[in-house]
Write a structure and sequence with these properties.
The chain is built from eleven helices and 13 strands. The protein has about 350 residues and is of the alpha+beta class. α1 packs antiparallel against α7.
């Protein structure tokens, strides 16, 4: 693994692979533990977070959970997989350094096996590398990168793995993605070196962890019923159906473009009311969508008028004003919350 002293020269992390340390190590531990960490002999508990696509997660879990069970038992690491109907999932690996390296090795070899299996059915001749994405607190990424990129260059050269630290933080978090690709052995050596950097430079301040958003669950209205799409199935949604039926019975506004923009709501048949929400600036984009597609969808589906105030200087929030009947407003709120929330399922957010 090329363990000359220079490899561990302290520097500022560019992209981090371990998201948290279970406890902050005192700086004077730093130099003494390095060689031990690289051999997996040091009993320091670490947590590493990986970002995976659904297909990759399926491969790690295996039939009836057999694969992940075997990985947990053989490595001694705790391996947790985030819940949720999300295109991306977080896989958290916690344990002593040697257990973490074993778990990583098993994951890397499993992914290589998947690549080999998929190639037997395709005409591709060159084998693509195994790729893992780590999620690292941005405060540690400077140390990973090193002055002028020196640390990351050193890691690439000594392990043979490709390492890329994302320039931007992951949405609504203070973490960045660090992508490692190469042979399973190169990836394992690379993870060991990243662990050392993370141990030497613990995260500074509070870390807001990245939580993947659920795939915005499409809502379909058919035959007066509302259905949400989960995987390949349409699940009837009785509460949304009620809201939709109410909204359709009393939509107070004529189609867009026919209202007098100077006096919105003047031509609304009562009872129209107004509801205001405040949304953090950094979340407003997921409600508006590209070129306003999402907000227009919410307007059409709910029958409510929705206005988003311009950002005001010094404020971290934006105001959303929803106007319509109580049913229009409820449906609009539900759809906005569905966009915003990864935890909430059903009507919990209303």
């Amino acid at each position: 693994m090329g363990e000359g002293d220079t490899i561990w020269a302290p520097s500022v992390l560019p992209h981090c692979t371990l998201s948290t340390l279970s406890h902050h190590l005192q700086p004077h531990f730093g130099r003494k533990m390095e060689s031990k960490v690289s051999e997996g002999g040091l009993n320091v508990t670490l947590t590493i977070r990986l970002l995976m696509h659904g297909k990759e997660v399926g491969s790690i879990i295996g039939k009836k959970g057999e694969t992940v069970k075997k990985m947990r038992e053989e490595s001694g690491a705790r391996i947790n997989i985030s819940e949720g109907n999300c295109p991306e999932r977080i896989v958290t690996i916690t344990g002593p350094t040697d257990a973490i390296f074993k778990a990583f090795a098993m994951i890397a070899y499993k992914f290589e096996e998947d690549i080999i299996n998929s190639m037997s059915n395709s005409p591709a001749t060159s084998k693509p590398p195994v790729t893992l994405r780590l999620v690292v607190p941005a405060s540690q990424c400077g140390s990973l990168i090193g002055k002028g990129g020196s640390k990351i260059k050193e890691i690439r050269e000594s392990t043979g793995a490709q390492v890329q630290v994302a320039g931007d933080m992951l949405p609504n978090s203070t973490e960045r993605a660090v992508t490692i690709s190469g042979t399973p052995d190169a990836i394992i050596q690379c993870v060991k070196q990243i662990c050392v950097v993370m141990l030497e430079s613990p995260p500074k301040g509070a870390t807001i962890p990245y939580r993947p958003k659920p795939a915005s669950t499409p809502v379909i209205f058919a035959g007066g019923q509302a259905y949400t799409i989960q995987g390949q199935y349409a699940i009837p949604h009785p509460e949304l159906t009620k809201l939709h039926q109410l909204a359709m019975q009393q939509t107070p506004f004529p189609p867009l473009g026919q209202t007098n923009p100077a006096f919105p709501g003047l031509d609304a048949s009562p009872p129209a009311s107004t509801h205001e929400l405040t949304i953090p600036n950094d979340l407003i984009g997921c409600i508006i969508g590209r070129q306003g597609t999402k907000i227009n969808e919410i307007r059409q589906m709910s029958g409510a008028q929705i206005k988003i105030a311009n950002a005001t200087e010094g404020s971290s929030e934006r105001q959303i004003t929803i106007t319509g009947t109580p049913a229009n407003i409820s449906l609009a709120q539900y759809l906005i919350n569905a966009r915003l929330t990864s935890e909430v399922t059903g009507m919990g957010a209303l």
